[in-house]
Structure formats: C-alpha cells, structure tokens
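Key result, reporting period 2: structure in, sequence out.
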C-alpha cells in the first residue's frame, strides 16, 4: 500500500510519492533476505526452495514417464530406473509435499491470523530454513554421486543391508530435514499457545490455524520416529547389527510401522 502526499495549491509542483515500508521494500540485497527474521520473508524463502526441489522431482518424473513409453529399456537400465523412481519419491515427498503448506503458508499466514507480529522464535524460524537447505544439499549430493534405489521409504532389509547405492548420504539429508520440521512445528505450537491476540480464544481460531496446529503436533510426534528409524538403518549398514535383517535376528516390519507416520503427515498437511 502506498500513500500519496501532494500539495494541491496552484503553482506548487506535486511532492513525490512516499511509499510505506513493508516486508518487500524495507531493505534490499541478498544479505537482507538471507539474514531476515521476518516471517513473511522466510515464507517466501521456503517457497523458492521447495519450488527448486519441485523442479528436480518433476524432472525425475518426466524421465520415468519417457522410459515407460515403450516396454523395453530404451533410455535407462533397470537399476537406473529404480534410482529415478526412488529419488523422485524422496524429493517430492520429503522436500516438497511435507514442508509446502506448513513451512510456506504457515510461516506467512499464521502470525497474521493470530494477530501476532511474528512467530514466537524468529531466529529459530530462520535457522529451520537453513537446516532445510543443508538437508536438501545432502540429498542432491546423493543424486550426483549415483542415487538411491531403495524406494522412498527405504525398504528394509534391502536399504540396511543389500543396497550398494548411496543410502547413507540420502538418509543423512532426510535426517537433517527432520530437525527443520521439528523446529518449525515447535515454533508454530508455541506461537498458537502464547501469541494469540486478546480475545482470540481457542474456539474463535480460524480453521487454517487449527490445521497448522494439528500438523505441527504430528510433526513433533512423528518426525523423531522417522529420524530414529533412519539412524537404525545406518547402524545396521555400518555396524551390521541385526535390527531389520531377519538373517541377523531383525524384523523388517519395524521400519514400515515408523514410516506410516509419513502418510499421516502428508494427508494432514
């Protein structure tokens, strides 16, 4: 919104218009965006980040569909196709679908609907975006190194014992991303509890606030379970401890139970 200040007396030239500062024009430059603690700017940073990841995941989907045009392996061999299928699922689900609504719309709209100036922990909010970027870099590095062929849920015991692809590198990226989700969910929960405008009781909250609040609770409860499962996959791959491999006394069904939280988070978001 801009305010025009003008003198209407005859013979007096109009004064230049003055633009009220907002989250877009309050400061310019890359540094002002990378060090911002404004929730609206951080929401835009998340939007740009997940858009980049969406194009990566979409590129894998296009390559998969091109291969499926004919029954034969014209473009890729079977192992390459499996890697494309896995990386498409990992990127689209973990780095686009799950953080899209909470991290983008939640950051931008939630404080506005609550009547708050910002989230409860602005610096922690910015840190969660940087953690998201670090997790994305690890996962994309796994793609550059050769990809993962385990399926997007890291099917055990194949992912923990038999796969020769870069499972650990991708698992580290998703594990780091989990900390970003936990911090974001914690920030949203505290904001809803402590920073509502006077008179905005629980039964007066907009439906969007309730949905973000419920999603944040699931992020706080479900993400640590997924993180622990990925750590167990890493332990079995590195130390050969029988956790998921039946030959070593493990149970592969344990990982499927924990990754069921992903479906819950996805449909809640």
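The corresponding designed sequence is given below.
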């Amino acid at each position: 919104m801009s305010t025009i200040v003008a003198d209407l007396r005859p013979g007096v030239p109009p004064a230049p218009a003055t633009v009220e500062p907002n989250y877009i024009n309050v400061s310019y430059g890359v540094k002002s965006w990378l060090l911002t603690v404004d929730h609206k700017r951080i929401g835009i940073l998340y939007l740009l980040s997940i858009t980049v990841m969406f194009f990566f995941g979409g590129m894998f989907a296009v390559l998969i569909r091109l291969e499926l045009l004919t029954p034969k392996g014209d473009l890729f061999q079977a192992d390459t196709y499996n890697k494309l299928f896995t990386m498409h699922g990992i990127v689209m689900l973990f780095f686009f679908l799950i953080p899209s609504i909470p991290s983008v719309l939640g950051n931008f709209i939630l404080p506005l609907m609550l009547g708050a100036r910002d989230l409860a922990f602005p610096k922690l909010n910015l840190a969660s975006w940087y953690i998201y970027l670090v997790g994305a870099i690890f996962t994309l590095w796994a793609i550059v190194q050769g990809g993962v062929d385990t399926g997007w849920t890291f099917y055990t015991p194949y992912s923990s014992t038999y796969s020769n692809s870069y499972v650990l590198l991708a698992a580290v990226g998703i594990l780091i991303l989990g900390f970003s989700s936990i911090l974001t969910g914690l920030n949203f929960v505290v904001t809803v509890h402590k920073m509502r405008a006077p008179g905005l009781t629980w039964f007066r909250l907009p439906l969007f606030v309730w949905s973000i609040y419920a999603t944040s609770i699931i992020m706080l409860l479900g993400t640590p379970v997924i993180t622990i499962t990925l750590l167990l996959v890493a332990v079995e791959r590195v130390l050969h401890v029988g956790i998921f491999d039946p030959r070593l006394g493990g149970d592969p069904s344990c990982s499927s139970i924990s990754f069921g939280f992903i479906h819950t988070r996805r449909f809640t978001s």
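Strands lie at 2-3, 18-19. The two ends are 32 Å apart (CA to CA). This case is discussed further under Risks and Mitigation.
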